[in-house]
Design a protein that fits this description.
This protein is α/β, with parallel strands linked by helices. About 60% of the residues lie in helices and about 5% in strands. It is built from 59 helices and 20 strands. The strands form seven sheets. A five-stranded parallel beta sheet has the order 6-13-14-5-15. Strands 7-9-8-10 form a four-stranded mixed beta sheet. β13 (about 460-465), α16 and β14 form a beta-alpha-beta unit. α8 (about 225-235) packs antiparallel against α15, α9 (about 235-245) packs across α15 and α33 (about 780-790) runs antiparallel to α35 (about 805-820). InterPro entries: Hybrid_Histidine_Kinase, TPR-like_helical_dom_sf. This is Transcriptional regulator.
């Protein structure tokens, strides 16, 4: 063996040098292996195994000759060590040469059919078939035809699933589509939405590369400005929420909007409570002396916050659109008596991000200051609610410093020793609906994807879906089943051997397939397998740049040992180069091998993991670094790995673990870790994702690395690594390392009982942080696990030393289990709290969780009993006997003592000093809802009891809700519209007084469905209800939001809005309710949807509400057993409407006579009661003419309805005017006063046309035509029937048009 230090300038000398000499010469001045024959700009996917294409020997030969330096040759006598060194470097060169050849390949082998199908789907979503235009900021944008496709790529690991999906990346970019990838990782399975977040971050990078409008070709769309304008117009609170989850989405905000401070959302409010709780945890766990009664009621929270300019603008708009918000200020100013002082504290909105940014900005030695949202705590009863004082002016000063030794978010007061912080009630948390929050996040993400895919087709790769969490699968299912998303190609790759029939992926796919036809989703299932020997032969030929017929014998050996697994084939070839069995001869510029040596010199392994393990064991660098990196995850940070390795000096226990696991000594861990990682990258084990972030090249590399660790030692090693990282957490965070929370808890939690007592505080905080992040992201499965770990870390006497924290943890853990449907575990946590000897107010939220569990199971009666039981323990009792007379007496008492209920007296009510009153107000609100659904006899009494509690005890943040319900009683029992209007204005002022947006949707619902339409046109209620719907979605009040949505559609139907628009809206709202699992709301709205479908002629039925949206018979059978009067009333009034407008007056009369009392009693005050009474009156007048024997009965019922509607009109109800004229016409016709009847009909037609009631005008024309026929005036009858037909067509009721055409044919 010779060592070459210089090359001769004789070109003929190049032929005498073997590959070993040139390899050594090439590596003489470089520590890292590089290939001089490789172009510097060659790029390719390092994971695209099995790519093919030909290399050119002529190019390689030319570069070889150019590389040889023109110098002299110095021959040195070889030694054993030099020979070994040369051999090692030769093997390294051959390995790198093979890897570089692989990166040059551009074709997949054996996947041509799958690629064609994928490209076909890509062409479908990128097709430019336009279906119309939409306006965004006054600019027309084309809308493309919708196409959504789901491609499933399943197979064993290493068979090229990801490579097949990535083959669409370049074609997608060429077609102008976004291609984004999100990989789910087993090590990150505890982090909610990890894969979706990764995909969203990549999507943000793609969006940021869009050109601005001023630099863009007008013919090419979209631009970044177009997308930002669309986001500004269509997304409001959704972007606030999404930017909290994925901060990179701020690229979609215009610069001015991105800089605007957002008002705190539910996520931020949750963090504010958590931050206050965190400091108390440290104090309580350190002192272990303070009982839970000490200073328990010293301070109370007032959940109010400053709104930004945008919020104020929305409030102003709402006040203009809501008839009850225009006069809530002077001349009746809000009283400032007996109110409370507020102190402003500062909390963080993002636990890791804000702290990291602050540390980057701080000067050496400077302590981190608190940043984030300002929250308010009640400390006195003598100042104004909305007046904030600074921290220096407040009686209590909480000076925060950062204790360097304390770790994550640990603080102490400036005074000596640790003091307990004032109690902060968890009412904000209790108001935060966990399920609703997750639904809101899914809704916001779906709306964003809908917007983006409307501009640019989107290809989304979800890699390793078998490791995804249920919350992520729910979001992905929502995207692919949303038929309003225009252009989406979703690709899932998963291992078929890891997904069985009970796996979450299988269940999600079954749910998607169940609606495949309805949602028009194209689903393709690619079950890829091993390559055939011919494909492997072509792949090896291209890798070695040798004609296929010359490698057939080599291929036969490799295919036999790898079974055609693509990744296995490549790794086997690399193993041959590392063993010197496959060499590259640079003199001949070709690969050489000996089949006999390969046959007997290479070990046959059963699987690729064994082969990877064998390769790893041969590399000292890989053997010492990759198992540690594998414990971190598929993607790891070099700084984290460095912290673990450099800790060997300080942690002897770590050396013991390393010695027992890897047989390595401390000296083996020397050297620069960056160089070592880049060496592993050149050897084909890992790839660089960023400057400090690396990823395993393939899952099998990770599995092989893990297999180096004995199974018995794996948890021990992970625990030791977690302990070291916990010690170095602050330093790593200061260096910018993110996502440490989930990494630490996942490493330590399996053996948390080993953790020293002094470290349990830090781990407790980390589990709380992880649990709450999972909680607000609706990843309840993970939040339940982390809450359980946090509870296990509580000290033995935690109920005495950490009362508030323990109460919070058990309560929230119970709610997480309830959201999962684990009711036994929920009861376990709940029973612990309910068994405590503590004030009832501390148990109220647990009771509410139990009530929510009953409601989730449609057990409304059980929820009502639970609510009555809790209120009974608080000395609030409903009478068990003579309920009707007692209710009447209570209502009469309000009229008798009207002065106590005037707007002025209510405005002067003091603010309650006791936080328990707020909790009771919330319970009363629940009781009102439950009684309305199943106990209407007690409903008014429940409202009165709630209002009396407020008058006796004072105002709270929730006092506006019972007074809104009281407006209904004033409106519908006392029939005093003016008093009701004034009362509604007071209700709005009380809501604004406390700045409580959580109840705004409920207030909007109650006032606009039961009060507003009595003094204003029904059309105005629809606009106000839309604002209420948005507020409910924003504040997690889905119940109120979707009831607002129900009455948006109902008011549109009753006001004569075009049925095509109503059909579109009602379908959209119903599907949203189904997506959010709000099945009761959806069931009530489905009958309206089916009614619209019947009128539109999209069903074979007319008066029977059965079709694609609803099954009338099944609904009636279900409601008979459930005793749900509320739902039944909604269904019956829809049946009544259908019977009237399809001319079946006998059905309308019989149905109305049997149900009108229930409808008016249960749906008290709603506009539908007015419509139902009108329809019943018209039907009874018609049946009195058709059934003379029952004429007296029908006429009596008709006059009763007419009298009630006339009374409403006389009191100022604008929607009753044309109904009064209509019934006057029917009454005159029944008495034989035909001329009077014709005049009343004509006035009805004119007034209905002027106010926009197309359907009522059409019905009046039809009834007038029937009167003309009875008078034998066929010409006038034809004229009115034609008018009725044209009006029905304008309304969109095509089925009714068909029926009127049949009548016209009979006349002609």
């Amino acid at each position: 063996m010779v060592h070459i230090s210089h090359f001769t300038d004789n070109p003929h000398n190049s032929s005498i040098f073997g590959s070993e000499e040139l390899s050594l010469a090439r590596h003489s001045n470089h520590s890292a292996v590089t290939n001089p024959w490789e172009d510097q700009d060659v790029k390719g996917s390092s994971k695209a195994f099995g790519l093919g294409g030909s290399l050119h020997q002529s190019t390689a030969k030319t570069k070889t000759k150019n590389l040889i330096a023109k110098d002299k040759v110095t021959i040195v006598t070889p030694t054993t060590s030099m020979s070994h060194n040369v051999t090692t470097k030769l093997e390294q060169f051959c390995t790198e040469k093979l890897l570089q050849n692989k990166r040059r390949l551009t074709t997949l082998y054996g996947r041509q059919r799958e690629i064609r199908l994928l490209e076909t789907e890509l062409n479908q979503i990128c097709s430019k078939t336009t279906t119309g235009t939409k306006k965004i900021n006054g600019k027309d944008h084309e809308t493309n035809s919708h196409h959504r496709s789901l491609c499933l790529i399943r197979g064993l690991s290493g068979e090229g699933k990801t490579a097949l999906a990535l083959s669409l990346k370049d074609p997608a970019k060429h077609r102008g589509a976004f291609f984004v990838q999100g990989k789910f990782d087993l090590a990150q399975i505890g982090e909610p939405y990890s894969g979706i977040k990764a995909a969203m971050r990549q999507l943000c990078r793609e969006i940021s590369q869009l050109p601005p409008r001023k630099l863009s070709d007008p013919s090419k769309r979209p631009t970044l400005d177009d997308l930002q304008e669309a986001v500004a117009e269509q997304l409001d609170w959704e972007m606030d929420l999404l930017c909290q989850v994925v901060p990179e989405l701020e690229v979609l905000l215009k610069p001015a909007a991105a800089e605007t401070t957002k008002s705190p959302g539910p996520l931020q409010r949750l963090f504010s409570v958590r931050d206050c709780m965190s400091q108390r945890v440290i104090s309580a766990m350190s002192t272990r002396k303070v009982t839970h009664f000490q200073s328990k009621h010293s301070l109370r929270r007032v959940n109010s916050h400053d709104s930004d300019d945008k919020s104020k603008a929305i409030e102003k708009t709402a006040s203009l659109k809501n008839p009850f918000r225009s006069s809530i200020a002077s001349p009746h100013p809000i009283s400032t008596e007996s109110t409370v002082t507020t102190v402003t504290t500062t909390t963080t909105t993002s636990r890791q991000r804000t702290r990291k940014q602050d540390r980057r900005k701080q000067q050496p030695g400077q302590k981190t200051a608190g940043t984030g949202i300002q929250r308010q705590l009640v400390v006195d009863e003598t100042a104004t609610v909305n007046t904030s004082t600074t921290t220096e002016e407040a009686p209590l000063r909480c000076q925060k410093t950062t204790d360097k030794k304390a770790g994550f978010r640990r603080q102490k007061t400036a005074e000596a020793g640790l003091q307990r912080r004032p109690t902060v009630e968890t009412t904000t948390i209790n108001n935060y609906n966990a399920k609703s929050a997750g639904d809101r996040l899914q809704f916001a993400m779906r709306k964003l994807i809908r917007l983006i895919s409307g501009f640019v087709p989107l290809v989304l790769l979800c890699d390793d879906a078998q490791f995804s969490d249920t919350a992520s699968l729910s979001i992905l299912k929502g995207w692919i089943t949303d038929d309003t998303i225009p252009s989406l190609l979703m690709i899932w790759t998963y291992r078929s051997n890891m997904v069985d029939d009970n796996h979450f992926v299988t269940k999600t796919l079954q749910e998607i397939q169940s609606v495949q036809d309805e949602k028009k989703i194209a689903i393709h299932d690619f079950a890829i397998g091993e390559l055939h020997q011919g494909d492997v032969n072509a792949m090896i030929a291209d890798l070695l740049d040798i004609p296929p017929e010359q490698v057939k014998e080599l291929t036969a050996i490799i295919h036999q040992r790898t079974r055609g697994n693509v990744f296995f084939v490549m790794q086997y070839l690399l193993s041959l180069t590392q063993k010197g069995l496959l060499k590259y001869n640079m003199g001949c510029c070709q690969w050489n091998w000996n089949l006999q040596d390969i046959q007997f010199g290479s070990t046959a392994t059963d699987n690729v993991v064994d082969l990877m393990r064998e390769k790893l064991e041969q590399s000292c660098t890989a053997r010492k670094l990759l198992p540690l990196a594998a414990c971190i995850g598929t993607t790891f940070d070099a700084q984290v790995l460095q912290a673990v390795i450099t800790a060997a000096d300080d942690y002897p226990i770590f050396l013991d673990v390393l010695g027992s696991v890897f047989a390595l000594e401390q000296s083996d861990f020397g050297g620069d870790i960056d160089n070592q990682l880049h060496q592993l990258e050149s050897e084909g084990f890992i790839e660089a994702s960023s400057a400090t972030t690396f990823s395993f090249l393939h899952d099998k590399v990770l599995e092989g690395s893990i297999s180096l660790i004995p199974e018995a030692e794996l948890d021990n090693l992970k625990y030791t690594m977690g302990y070291i990282l916990l010690e170095n957490q602050e330093r790593l965070e200061a260096q910018g390392v993110e996502q440490l929370t989930f990494l630490l808890v996942n490493l330590i939690n399996p053996q948390l009982e080993r953790l020293p007592a002094e470290k349990q505080i830090a781990l407790y905080e980390l589990n709380c942080a992880a649990a709450e992040e999972a909680y607000v992201a609706a990843a309840f499965r993970r939040s339940a696990v982390y809450y359980k770990a946090a509870i296990s870390l509580l000290p033995e006497r935690h109920w005495e030393t950490m009362y508030e924290e323990s109460l919070y943890l058990y309560t929230t853990a119970a709610e997480s289990e309830m959201c999962l449907g684990n009711y036994d575990q929920m009861k376990s946590y709940s029973n612990v709290v309910l068994a405590l000897d503590c004030p009832i107010q501390d148990k109220i939220h647990v009771y509410r969780i139990i009530m929510d569990a009953h409601m989730a199971n449609a057990e409304v009666q059980e929820a009502l009993k639970e609510c009555l039981s809790v209120l009974g323990s608080l000395k609030f009792h409903l009478p068990k006997t003579l309920l009707g007379p007692r209710t009447l007496a209570a209502v009469a008492n309000i009229k008798l003592h009207k002065k106590k209920w005037t707007p002025d007296s209510l405005r002067r009510l003091p603010v309650s000093k006791d936080p328990m009153d707020e909790a009771i107000s919330k319970l009363h609100d629940s009781l009102i809802i439950f009684s309305m659904m199943t106990w209407p006899e007690a409903w008014p009494l429940c409202i009165i009891m709630a209002c009396r509690h407020v008058i006796d005890r004072g105002l709270t943040r929730y006092s506006a809700v019972p007074f809104a319900w009281m407006t209904m009683i004033i409106q519908n029992v006392f029939m005093d519209f003016q008093w009701a209007k004034e009362h509604a204005e007071v209700t709005c002022s009380l809501m604004d007084k406390f700045q409580n947006r959580e109840i705004e949707s409920r207030i909007s619902l109650v006032l606009n469905i039961c009060t507003a339409h009595w003094t204003a046109p029904i059309q105005l209620s629809g606009k106000a209800l839309t604002i209420g719907y948005k507020r409910g979605m924003e504040c997690c009040d889905l119940d109120s939001a979707f009831w607002n949505a129900h009455f948006i559609n109902e008011s549109a139907l009753y006001s004569g809005t075009n049925l095509a628009l109503v059909e579109k809206d009602v379908e959209s709202y119903t599907k949203n309710e189904m997506d959010y699992k709000m099945f009761k709301h959806a069931d009530c709205l489905k009958s309206v949807w089916q009614l619209v479908l019947n009128l539109r002629g999209r069903s074979s039925n007319t008066t029977i509400l059965t079709g694609t949206a609803h099954d009338e018979e099944a609904a009636l059978n279900m409601l008979e057993t459930s005793n749900d009067l509320h739902h039944l009333s909604h269904l019956q009034k829809d049946r009544l409407f259908a019977a009237a407008f399809f001319g079946d007056f006998e059905l309308a009369a019989n149905l109305g006579l049997s149900t009108i009392d229930m409808i008016c009693k249960v749906l008290i005050g709603q506009y539908s009661t007015l419509v139902s009474r009108f329809i019943l009156g018209v039907a009874c007048y018609e049946m009195a003419r058709q059934r003379p024997k029952r004429k007296k009965e029908y006429i009596g019922a008709a006059k009763k309805q007419r009298k009630q509607i006339r009374k409403w009109f006389s009191m100022g109800c604008p929607g009753a005017h044309h109904y009064v004229l209509f019934l006057d016409a029917e009454n005159a016709a029944s008495k034989g006063k035909l001329e009077d009847a014709i005049e009343f009909y004509q006035r009805t037609i004119t007034l209905a046309g002027r106010t926009g009631y197309l359907h009522d005008r059409s019905l009046a024309c039809e009834r007038l035509a029937a009167l003309y026929l009875r008078m034998d005036d066929v010409v006038s009858a034809k004229h009115r029937l034609i008018e009725a037909r044209d009006l029905s067509e304008e309304w969109g009721a095509m089925k009714r048009v068909e029926l009127l055409d049949e009548k016209l044919k009979s006349l002609f």
